[in-house]
Amino acid sequence: MSHRVGVVRFPGTNCEFDTIDAIRALGGDAEVLWHGDPSLKNVDAVVIPGGFAHGDYLRCGAIARFSPVMESVAAFALNGGPVLGICNGFQVLTEAGLLPGALQKNIGMKFLCSMQQIEVVSTGNVLGKGSTVGDCIKIPINHFEGNYVCPPEALAELEARQQIVFRYTDNPNGSTRDIAGICNESGNVVGMMPHPERATSLLLGSTDGTALIRSFLAA
């Protein structure tokens, strides 16, 4: 029986079908969850995909955080349910308080769209199965506000609790400590700026996202 993944759609989301296709290609089952409906439809895992939820007005994810579905996602996460936020989804998770810190505009004030190498920093999370600390993988980025920031005390906690999941090997956006992805203390909620769903085929330039999505499905 395949695992059912709910992929949240807000007005302005544009990566939901990329995400669904990647999940289905790896043997999972996926369906769209509309942001205005609080029901998660008994899915086994939730992805908040990339895009520009509510046009990124105010701040990225600031309006999406109040959508009815997010209260259900928060309860799901609190009960240990696997949640993955990709790019704009990472921004939504920080705004919702499910992950610490915030994402601000890239250094240089430029939109970035390129293949990047990231290093696996920790594996004690829903993306870590099948990876080894120190692995370097190639995954594309596509963002204007991917510069991760947090207070010094929060950064110290992330480091001490092994909550930094990925780091850029050549920081493209000014992100603090080269952070490309983090998780909550329990490891069941992960946010990352690079797009693993766009790295599941050589036709897309890399298959390095495959192991991450397989791990998520196994979680």
| Helix content class | 10-25%
Return the average pLDDT rounded to an integer.
Answer: 95
**Superfamily (CATH H level) name:** Class I glutamine amidotransferase (GATase) domain
> What is the count of structural domains?
1
* Apparent shape: globular
Tally the helices: what do you get? Answer: 5
Q: Radius of gyration over alpha carbons?
A: 15 Å
Distance between the termini: 14 Å
CATH architecture: 3-Layer(aba) Sandwich
Question: Based on the structure, what is the oligomeric state of the protein chains?
Answer: single chain
* Number of E-type strands: 11
Report strand %: 25-35%
Low-confidence stretches are none
Name of the level-1 CATH class: Alpha Beta
- Strands of the biggest beta sheet: in what spatial order? 2-1-3-4-11-10-9-6-7
Largest sheet descriptor: 9 strands, mixed
**Within the CATH hierarchy, at the fold level, what is the topology?**
Rossmann fold
Order of helices and strands: EHEEHEHEEEEHEEEH
What's a quick, concise take on this entry?
The chain has helices at 16-25, 68-78, 88-95, 152-160, 210-218; strands spanning 4-9, 29-34, 45-48, 83-86, 102-104, 112-120, 136-143, 147-149, 164-168, 179-183, 189-192. The protein is of the alpha/beta class.
